[in-house]
Amino acid sequence: MFNHTFLARLFLIGLGTIGLYTAASEILPEDISLLPCIFYALTDLICPGCGMTRACIALVQGQFYAAWHYHPFSFLIVGLAIAAAFFPMRLRNTWHRRSLATQNLIVIGGIILCLSIWLIKIKSTLGTEF
Predict the structure, then answer these.
(1) CB of 42 within 8 A of CB of 20?
(2) Pick from 56, 90, 86: nearest CA to 73
(3) Mind listing the pLDDT tens digit for each residue in 73-99?
(4) Rounded to whole angstroms, how far apart are CA atoms 109 and 93?
(5) Burial of 73 (0-12, 13-18, 19+ CB in 10 A)
(6) 3-class SS at 25?
(7) Strand, helix or coil at 94?
(8) How far is CA 30 from the centre of its chain?
(9) What's the pLDDT tens digit per position in 38-48?
(10) Is 73 helix (H, G, I), strand (E, B) or coil?
(11) What is the pTM of this model?
C-alpha cells in the first residue's frame, strides 16, 4: 500500500501545501514549529535534523539562502523526494547500478557530512564553550 513513490508524493504535496499556506499568510519559516524536537527537549542540544522543516518550507517559498542556513540537507531531501515521486524507476536503476562498495561509501559519506554539519551547528550555538 505505502511505497516510496507514494510517500515521496505525499511529502511533496504536504510540503507544497504548507509552503503555499505560509507564503500566502506571510508566515516566515523561522516562525513555524510543527513538531517539537524530542532530542532537544531531553538534551537541550539541537539534533542533526533541527531546521529541516524550516529549510524545506523556505525552499518552497523560494528562499534558497535561508533554506541553506536552516539545514543544507534540505536540498538533498527535496531533490530525492522529487526524483522518487516522478522518476522512481530511474532513481532505483541509478542506485542499483552502483556497486555495493559505492553505495556504502555514499551512505557513510552522507552520515559523516550530516554529523559534521550538526557539530558545526552545535559549536555555533554554544559559542566557544565547545
Answers:
(1) no
(2) 56
(3) 999 999 999 999 999 999 999 999 999
(4) 21
(5) buried
(6) coil
(7) helix
(8) 15
(9) 888 888 888 88
(10) helix
(11) 0.80
Which residue in this structure is represented by grid cell 531531501? Answer: 77
How sure is the predictor about 128, in pLDDT bands with cuts at 50, 70 and 90? low
Q: Return the C-alpha cell found at 101.
A: 562498495
Task: Give the chain's length.
Answer: 130
How far is the C-alpha of 91 from the C-alpha of 81, rounded, in Å? 10
Q: List the chain domain ranges.
A: 4-129
- pLDDT of residue 120 exceeding 80: yes
Higher model confidence: residue 29 or residue 61?
61
Q: Which three cell numbers stand for residue 3?
A: 511505497
DSSP 97-111: TS-HHHHHHHHHHHH
Cβ–Cβ < 8 Å for 106, 98: yes
Chain CA centroid to CA 124, Å: 20
**34: DSSP letter:** S
